[in-house]
Amino acid sequence: MDVKREVERQLSLIERNAETLLPREELAAKLERALKQKRPLRVKLGIDPSAPHLTLGHAVVLGKLRQFQDLGHTAVLVVGDFTRRIGDPSGKAKTREPMSPEEIERNMASYREQAFLILDPERTEVRYNSEWLGRLSFEDVIVLSSKYTVARMLERDDFARRFKEGVPITIMEFLYPLAQAYDSVAIRADVELGGSDQRFNLLIGRDIQREYGQEPQVILTMPLLIGTDGVHAMSQSRGNYIGLAEPPEEQFGKIMSLPDEPMPQYFSLLTDIPWEEVKGLHPKEAKKRLAWEIVRQFHGEEGAARGKAHFERVFEERELPEEVPEVQVPLGLLSPEGTVGIVDLVFATGLVSSRSEARRLVAQGGVQVNGRRVTDVKARIPFEPPLVVKLGKRRFARFVR
């Protein structure tokens, strides 16, 4: 094998679509040594269990991690069950609320299965950072905190802005990037991946590894995927996300609802189809091509076909989906005249998490009953089944007696 040529080949693939690769020459040296010693690199990605679903935003970095695996390296997926108790302040204008261990446990219940929709299980270590962070004594934390200065922390844009504006910054928030950096020490990372918003934290990892006598990791950041609103980065807290494990019908429909502007980014970051190949198509046809390709990755050809057929039947031919869940209105919600409040009806579908969410959907014009839009939150609906309730563009329920 021509080692130099193989190093350049791997670098070329690794750099594709990456936003930052620092330092490139160090990665070249690590790759060369790995090839000569037949020792795969340890490539780290941290996942924050803030919500129960991994999204297409996660798929961008998970796809890059899979690329390292395909080149023969080891993926180390670090689930931040301990650090999420602190709360990552990156990019936030105020202190982020910590989560309870119970919430974290619920959220990460299916992370492994979702991640393995992209990663090769045979080349993946899944680690939880409570393994090592939970064992640190207070003396250990003092030693760790002594290895980085407040001045360096305040170089981070969000901390600098908050400090200038007089917005409180807690010491706990300074501990988050240090804890994330210690993860790299614990697993002896050669490379760490992350979104572009993680660059500062990843760079701290290099410094902390050096302080603990390790060779510093190379950092590689990927662009943040724009969400379904076409404006903000994909986020479950904003509701502008597409989940990896969502049903094919839901994935296909959400992709078809994307604005036109982020289409080049989606093709570039989530498929192997060059944007040049599809940019001449009508936007709707380009989205169908994108939706088919993405749904196929997670649900196979059959799932992509189901998603496409569902979209065309419901949104192009204006028919109901083949399967609409049937529910019954609790008798206690019916008035003596046989009517039910629209908010109670929407909540009874089981498709919203609270009556306040149901009220908001009605007020925003996102509810139809038997094809008629209802926007008055005080409206009462004659309960004459079957009633078909449509929420937003893709969710349906049929009420029966």
Name of the CATH class of the largest domain = Alpha Beta
Determine the CATH topology of the largest domain.
Answer: Rossmann fold
Task: Give the name of the CATH architecture of the largest domain.
Answer: 3-Layer(aba) Sandwich
Largest beta sheet: what is the strand line-up?
Answer: 1-6-5-2-3-4
Low-confidence stretches: none
Task: Please give the share of residues in helix.
Answer: 40-55%
The span between the termini is 72 Å
Helix-strand category:
alpha/beta
- Strand tally: 13
Q: Kindly provide the radius of gyration, computed on alpha-carbon positions and rounded to a whole number of angstroms.
A: 24 Å
How would you characterize the largest beta sheet?
6 strands, mixed
Query: How many helices?
Result: 17
**Portion in beta strands:** 5-15%
Number of domains: 3
CATH homologous superfamily label of the largest domain? HUPs
The average pLDDT value, as a whole number, equals 90
Principal-axes geometry comes out as globular
Order of helices and strands: HEHEHEHHEHHHHHEHEHHHHEEHHEEEEE
